[in-house]
Amino acid sequence: MDFVEEIQKLKDKWGKELILLAHHYQRHEIADLGDRLGDSYELARAASQAGEARFIVFCGVRFMAEAAEVLRRESQMVVHPVAEAGCPLADFAPTGQAQEAWDYIAGVRGGDAVMPLVYMNSSAALKAMVGRYGGSVCTSSNAGRAFEWGLSRREAVFFFPDEHLGRNSAKGVGISPEHVVLWDPQKKGGGIEPGALKNAKAILWKGYCHVHTNFTPEDVHAARERFPGARVLVHPECPVEVTSLADGAGSTSYLVKEVENAEPGTTLVIGTEVNLVTRLARDHQDRTVVPLKDSLCHDMFRISPESLLDSLRSLPGPEVVTLPEDVKKDAKLALERMLSI
């Protein structure tokens, strides 16, 4: 069976009643089928703006489908073809542990002294917790602005759940390393001395994306030896030791635009999920685009043409995403604050 052809037939059948959203990290067959291709927040916004769409089929990982569910219109349903396609980074910060940490830090510093900030790559429940305490969601493209916003209102920020994006963002807004501390939920008091906690400007949750911690300084050095004169660009979920050696660090959208805007004949070495990099190379053959290293998001890869076809055949089916109304309400507050930043 030609799964792609069958999917296209069902898309044609549903017409404007269905919008298929595909994240940049999806395998090529899925990305090419998407009505919109983008990063997590671009796709969530696209879902909310697709007024004629009754079904929003989200080809990405779970937190992305949840964000679309938070932002969707009343007349819409969000469908996630593979419910098991989660995000290990988001899983680093269970809401119960995050609440315990918040309560402890509020006890040490006062509840109005610290601004919670949560990366888009997190559960809707964690976004809701942050929303309840006056905080905001951010993406990798506006994390620096979110840090500045938080510090203009409170003494420090508490950033969930990616320590490397947090460290890169803190560095970008001029916070010195001695004012950055790492909260380890497995240790009493986060493993932070009370004095250091009181003096911190940025408190970072201990979590990471395995796709981006796969890259090392040695990989950057090797790329420069192999491709003299190439530009090395990486995602800010990479460790600071890697971003500091690169020619640029930015969000998925940033990396895409840098390749699109590069002069023909340019060589670009990209440190992010390999499906995106190989697709950029395919689509821009007048320039050389190579991965810094092959690094696959296995959860993104769970969505296959076969699983997508099964989901479309059973619409709305069992893959409809649902969230408690209080979670949706508070998570939407945090997402809307991001828009105001």
In the CATH scheme, the class of the largest domain would be Alpha Beta
Share of helical residues: 40-55%
Strands in their spatial order, largest beta sheet: 6-5-7-9-8
Cα end-to-end separation: 48 Å
Q: Strand portion, in percent?
A: 15-25%
Which structural category do the helix and sheet elements fall into? Answer: alpha/beta
Overall outline: globular
Quaternary structure classification: single chain
Which residues form runs of ≥5 with pLDDT under 50? Answer: none
Short description:
With 341 residues, this protein is α/β, with parallel strands linked by helices. Helices cover 47% and strands 16% of the residues. Strand 8 (180-183), helix 10 and strand 9 form a beta-alpha-beta unit.
Protein model, in words:
With 341 residues, the protein is α/β, with parallel strands linked by helices. It has helices at residues 3-14, 28-33, 40-49, 62-71, 88-91, 95-109, 124-132, 143-153, 163-172, 194-199, 210-213, 217-226, 240-243, 252-261, 274-283, 298-301, 305-313, 325-340, and strands at residues 18-23, 36-38, 55-59, 77-79, 114-119, 136-138, 156-160, 180-183, 202-205, 231-234, 248-249, 267-271, 288-291. The longest helix is centred in the last third of the chain and has 16 residues, at 325-340.
